[in-house]
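Late entry, written up from scratch paper. The run itself happened at the end of the previous shift, but nothing got recorded in the book at the time, so transcribing now.
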Amino acid sequence: MTVNNRNRGNIAMGEIVSGGPGLDRRTFLKESGLVSLGVGLSALPIGRVGANDTINIALIGCNGMGFANTRSTLKVPGTRCIALCDVDQNVLERRSGELVELYGEQPRIYSDYRALLDDPDVDAVIIATPDHWHCLQMVHACEAGKDVYVEKPLANSIVECERMVAAQVASGSVVQVGQWQRSGPHWIEAMDFVQLGQLGRIRTVKAWMYNGGMRPLPVRPDEPAPDGVDYDMWLGPAPSRPYNRNRYHGSFRWFWDYAGGLMTDWGVHLIDPVLWGMQVEHPKRVMSTGGNFGFPESAMETPDTQQAIYEFDDFTMLWEHTMGAGLGPFQRTHGVAFVGRNGTLVVDRNQWEIFPETEWRSGGPPSFRMAGQPVRTSRPEDRGLDHHTANFVDCMWTRGKPACDVRTGSLAAVNAHLGNIAVRTGEALNWDGASLEFRDNPSADELLQNEYRGPWRIPG
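Output as recorded:
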């Protein structure tokens, strides 16, 4: 028995199909009483997962994080990877061979994700393609009745984020976004502490990424696409351009056609805890400045240096990134700092700690406004990605809400895109979070959505 086989068949471009699940694990868990007890996959003994009761995973976009996500998901009992899809045959052959070597099973091979989504044996897909593909592939997967794990950032535009949220609501698919801090135990502990109120009034939150390992992207000439690469399919809805290796594979993220630079790459990981800890969604006002100041000779379009200020109702958020320098605030390459009257909490992927504020008193020795805390370090067994993929599988069993559902992922992506739109327009932007529109700024409104190249069109 496989899970969530609903709404199979041909995929209508842009048509959102709704429908409930058939007889699947949700029914099994409900009838056995496990759902009412709040018990999911992680609480079930391995022996309960039968040979014919398996979640069949497929991967779309097999390089980098796509394969890392797949290997992490396959650590959960009762999962198997039955299919791979990529526009690069060289990548497909390599990853297929690795799956056979690691798990002893030959996956089905697809070069067009739409054919993979027509495969009735596929229960869930992991989407790890370049950002400009996330929207179409996630929406079409929901229409096809699949559950989805989609890499961050959720989308390459604010309008796409909106459409992806609507598709998940209409279909009922479980959608987990790859912002895995949401499942990291020490991140959860840090956010719980922020919300206790012991830091006092928080007036500023800082988030940053100093990528010291980055080097300039050399200017390269256009050239024929490599053998085995369906370059037109790789472009998909993006503008038609000659092949250039700078725009392909990992470095695609430094070009506006496909991604949003370091702001949307690392920004969504670190802006998300700001929204989480402060329990907010949308700023009222955003301004940003930056450019290619570290590597002015680089071929990158997105800024290698950028600062953005977000104004919320009662605090500001500061985002900062730079490339080629790794010594950021608090001597950390990346992190989030919640600056309160009594102290500052600083958290990154390795640990979190408190820096108490000093209270100076006339005629007496100084004291601290709050008690110090021991440094809380993330343990190797608490690796956030493995918790995140396990949570995804658990929610496929229970049909529960995942740790980073599509709306949560959309809020982080929207905030990151707001910073990019502010730096591209060079204007202070007034934002209406209810309508997802700018107030009286047509030039900024034009950047809410990237133009789609035919025959592709944005879902809606």
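The chain is about 30% helix and 20% strand.
(Scratch paper discarded after transcription.)
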